[in-house]
Amino acid sequence: MDVISPILFHARHNPQALALCAPGVDLVTYGQLEKSVNNISRRARSLGLAAGHVVGVLLPKHPTIHAVLILGLARLGVITISVGPRKLPHSLRLDAMVCDGPHPHANVRTIPFDPSWLAGDGRPPEVDHAPGDDDITRIILTSGTTGEPKAVALSHRMVFGRVLRYHALCGNVFPSRARVFCDVTLATSFGYTIFISTLLKGGAFFTRGNTGENTLRALDFYNVDAFVVAPGSLPELLAEHDKHRSQHTFDVILTGGSILSASLAERVASRMGSNLIAAYGSAETSLVASAPAHAVRNLPGAVGYVTPGMRVEIVDETDRPMPIGESGIVRIRGDYMASGYYNDAESSARIFRDGWFYPGDVGALTLDGVFVVAGRQTAVLNLGGEKIAPEAIEELVAGFDPAAAAGAALVSAVDGVDQIWVAIESAKTIDLQRLREHCRKQLPTIFTPTRFVSVERLPRNAMGKLDRGELLRLLKAAAVGAHDAPGAQTP
Fold first, then answer.
1. Yes or no: domain 4-308+335-343 corresponds to CATH 3.40.640.10
2. Which of 41, 90, 273, 345 is most buried, by the most CB atoms less than 10 A from its CB?
3. Beta-carbon neighbour count of residue 385 at 10 Å?
4. Cα-Cα-Cα-Cα dihedral of 170, 172, 174, 176, to 10°?
C-alpha cells in the first residue's frame, strides 16, 4: 500500500477536519487536501511527469502548498525531493524542478508553479502505475555538515515502518497527540516522517506562520499538544515565547537532529512543557535511540536508549568491538534502514559495510543501553596530537549561558599556529572574560578557546545542525579581519 491513499481516505470520514496550517498564511482541511492533491496530480500528468521520475520541489513562497505538492506528485508515483540553494549530490539526476522562483540547479527542466495547479474539480487522476510497497516515494538529502550531502531513497514500506517506530518508541503520549507543531522542514527525514505520521492518523500538521505572534496564537487557539523541533531552533523559539508572553504549553515535545543540552532542556521544560523526549536518528537509519530528557540529562552526550529493532556497536579502527563504556567508532544496523545511497555506489561501499551503517560518529554505550555520542570523527579538533570534540566546548558555553549557542573550530593564527575559536550566537551581551575563565577551569589549557566571535546567527542546515564547513569559513573570515591582540574579544 502507498502512504498517500490512507491520508486521503480521511476526507471520507471527516472532510472538515483540519489537515494543514501555516498560521497567517494558509489553512487546509482534509476535504480540500484531497481535491488539491488530485488536481495537482492531474496537472503534473498533463506536463509529462510520471511514475519513477525524480522531481525537485522548491516552493519557499508557498510552504503549505509545498506539502500538498509532495502528496500530489507521490499519488502518481513520482519521486520527490525538497531542494534548496545548496548543491545536489553528483550522483543525483533530476528529471524536473517544480519551483515558484529562480533556482540554482542548471541543466534541469524547470516547471513553474502557480496557484492554478490547485484549481479543478478534484477528480482523481488516471494513474498509469499504482505505487507499491517497495516503490521509491521520497528522496532525502543527508545533512552534509562536513562534506557533500548524499541522497537516501525511501520506499513506501520504509516510510510506514519509520512512522510506526516513532509511534511505538517515543513514550505513551506522543502517539495519541494529533495536533502537531513541527519546526523541522520536510526536506529532512525527521520532518517528513512526522508530517506523514500526523496525516496518517488524521491529525493536524502545523508549521511556522508568517509571524511569531501569529504562530503562538494559533498554537493556543487550536490547543496544539505536540511539538517537534531540532535543538538548534529552540533558543530562537524560546525567545519568541518569552517576547509574546505566551502561556501555551505542550503535552509532549520531541527533539531530534542534534544533542539536547541539559541547560537548554531545563529552560524548555520550565516554559513550554515538561514532557521532553530526546531522539537520535538519521536519514539513513530513522529512529535509533530515544529517552525522556530528564533520564539522560546528567550524562553529557547521551541521546537515549537504543530502541528495539536497532543494534548499535562501538568498534575500533579495525572494526573490533569495544568494551562497554569505552569510546570508539559508531556503527548501526536495524529495521527500515537504507542499504546504500541513491545511485552512489562509491559512497555506499565506504559508509555501508557488511550490513552496517557507519554514520561517522564517535560514541559509547553504557551498561543499561544508553547511547552516548561524543561527536563527529571528521569534526574532532586536533592540536599537536591532543584531541577534543568541539561539542565538549560548545556544551561548556551552553552551561555558562543557556540562552547562547556556540560553534567551535580550529583557526590558524597569523603565525600559522592553530587555535580554538568559538562563534557565539546570543540575543544578549555575554561577559567573554568570565566565559573564558569558566572554560579555563574545566578544560586543559591547550583546549581553552583563544578567541570568541559574536555572530548574529550560527550557520545551520535544515535539521538545525551546525554546518561546520560554513562555521569554519565564517571564523576564518573573522581571523583575516582581526588585528587585535590574541585572546582579546572580537565584536
1. no
2. 41
3. 5
4. 140
